Amino acid sequence: MTLHRVSGSKRSVDGSRRRGRRAMLGLAGASILAVAAVTVPAYADGADADAAFQVGVTHERYSADWWGEEQAVADAREILSSVGPLQNQHLMGFGAENPWPAANSSARDWGSLDERIELIEATGGTPVVTLCCAPGWMTPSGEDWPDAYEAPQPQFYDEYAQLSAEAAARYPQVEYFQVWNEFKGFWNEDLNRWDHEGYTELYNLVYAAVKEVRPDAKIGGPYVSLNSFQDCAHDCSDLEGSWGTADRRDLDAMEYWLANADGAEFFTVDAWSSTNDGYHPAAAGVYEKFRDVTEWITARTDLPVWWSEFYAPASSADESSSVALMRAAIEGMRDGGAAVALLWSPECQSELPCLWTATGAAGGGQATEYVPLIREFSAR
């Protein structure tokens, strides 16, 4: 999920017009405010979800897995079976253990990821794997679960590409792979911008390695987290609206990747509706932002656009509900020409919008007010 940094035509998923075990050391999420639901009209013609656009989910540390209370898990799985069908799981973290615990070892631990893939298939989902994060021995700290997210060091890019290829070979049922997550660990403090060169180098190695073992795999990047400001004082871009101004450095990273990636089958991005300096647009502004950003991307590439994460928090002063704001974001992405949007963490873990209540105790696994909205944009 996004960590805010302070300092075309509709396309289907594949570009055509068609349509474990819990990780005890997962990566934690942030919170946004959820309030009561209200009805909001569509902001553009075509309120019904286009078959070329669909909303799926990304599993987090806790989900509808077997270790919860039996009835709660069963109820959650019924909800999960009714949305999507795209379901994303990270290679490591966010519900999956380190698959390559020791350097210079052939031993692998795929158990938790196996179980998440089984969950996805058991609920009729289409599995997606995000190739993030990296075993600690590849990173500067040497830790699997450091306080700050870390990218692999350049001397281990080849090993990370190898691990990605092993995952692709192990799970032939997985068609879609996102490479990394939000440029985590790729911020260059000296240049005060993203190390988009380093990310693209890693991406190209992963792309080649996965394609060697799985020529049919569809691979996407760069998964940039787009920051914005209401009162932009530096690094401002021409991408702006009533919602604020996009950070030029994030757009530069996207354009560098587009110019230098060795190949891709889809484009990945994420953002919040709110700005880094605390402005929360109302529903019309939320719609405009997600539409404008999507249109900026589709003007530069024919790749299908995936919103890997999206957030539309309500402020205490906003009379709009979180459901209304989420609808505005989804409709903005759709009308801008996106193919996919993935809802972060379908099981409630904090104040993030979610689809079912926690399954750890009796009475859990109950549908939230967001379920009808996500079902409306499901491709089931």
Automatic annotation (TrEMBL):
Q: Which SUPFAM superfamilies match?
A: (Trans)glycosidases
Give the InterPro entries listed for this entry. Answer: GH, Glycosyl_Hydrolase_39
Top-rank lineage group of the source organism: Bacteria
Report the Gene3D superfamilies cross-referenced here: Glycosidases
**Protein name as annotated:** Xylan 1,4-beta-xylosidase
Q: Which organism is it from?
A: Glycomyces mayteni
